[in-house]
Amino acid sequence: MTASNIYLSEFYHLAEDKGLDALDMLRKAGIDRHMVDTPGKRVETDKLAFFVQNLMHCLEDEAMGLAEHRIPIGAFFMMGKMAISEPTLGKALLTGIRLYSMMTNAFRMELQEQGNYARLIFRLNTPDLDKNHLLAEINLMAWHRLSAWLISENLQLHEIYFDYPSPRHVGEYAYLFPGQHKFCADYHGFCFHRNFLDREISQTSGSLKRFIKRCPEVLFIQPQTDFSISYELKKLLKKKLPDGIPVIEEAADTLHMTKRTLIRKLRDEGTSYQQLKDLVRRDKAVKMMTSRATSLSSVAEAVGFSDPAVFSRAFKGWTGVCPREYRQNLEDVPAVNHG
Q1: Cβ-count burial of 184 within 10 angstroms (0-12 exposed, 13-18 middle, 19+ buried)?
Q2: d(CA 41, CA 277)
Q3: pLDDT tens digits, 57-105
Q4: Which DSSP helix (H) or strand (E) runs through 268?
Q5: How far is it, in rounded angstroms, from Cα 10 to Cα 334?
Q6: Per its UniProt record, what SUPFAM superfamilies does this chain match (predicted)?
Q7: Domains of the chain
Q8: Cis omega (within 30 of 0) for bond into 334
Q9: Region of residue 179 (phi > 0: left; psi between -120 and 50: alpha; otherwise: beta)
Q10: pTM tops 0.85, yes or no
Q11: Are the C-beta atoms of 129 and 66 separated by less than 8 Å?
Q12: Which one of 58, 146, 203, 213 counts the least CB within 10 Å of its CB?
């Protein structure tokens, strides 16, 4: 698995700004210096994770100096330890929120419920210190991945909120934050179907230690353990995509259930057939867009669009930018502002 090197570049310059030997940290992570600030490069997630973990430990701060108040090393593990003792995800999140409110003043959190949806909201107390939004992104990734892991399911996100404008590397968000992106919001956070709050916690102290050992690598990849119908359907749609995505009746039959049952199960998981179909198409399109030799018309055709104009509108809805702008961003990633 890989991640955009824009994250490596930002963490590297953050280490420099904090007076650390960033070059030595790169060497220990097995990363070449040319990977920093070079447009379009991607870095292996395990190496990026090693660098980030080393940065946190050197600063003795899980917030990496991006907040006025430190988050002590071990805070995330302690939160996980308390969360696994709760009966449901909803209670686990509330316990985590209470714990963080006692340990640090770096940010404030809130769990809201409205209608069929729940929102986990973060408000940084000193957002000016998080100039490149690293802490905001880490918060979103960490709490989403942990929530999904706690219940051994894919926590399907409905909307993700960012309290800043769409960044130039927004295309990476399709992988890191799958769902509808809302920029320039009053807070950062994510929204999901409230049914997930009632899911039972399925993890133990042993599995928590294994999860934490893989942090922060697991933050930069989508959750891998999933037993939901939406996960099974996504696997089916990916497999069928080259020959054309099947209609919902055919998909339901393949999954050995009626159309009505499939619709109900997907609704219970906070998603729909159309949303998953769009997700599969988007992921395939984003992956193909990284190859400059692949024409936009070929990408459109590969994901089931005969009209490039229709594909362009759909792609902008998925990622926030049109296909040509997305590809231009890959070829011309700006230097990271670390001043």
Answers
A1: exposed
A2: 29
A3: 999 999 999 999 999 999 999 999 999 999 999 999 999 999 999 999 9
A4: helix 259-268
A5: 11
A6: Homeodomain-like (SSF46689)
A7: 60-220 (no CATH), 229-268+272-331 (1.10.10.60)
A8: no
A9: left
A10: no
A11: yes
A12: 213
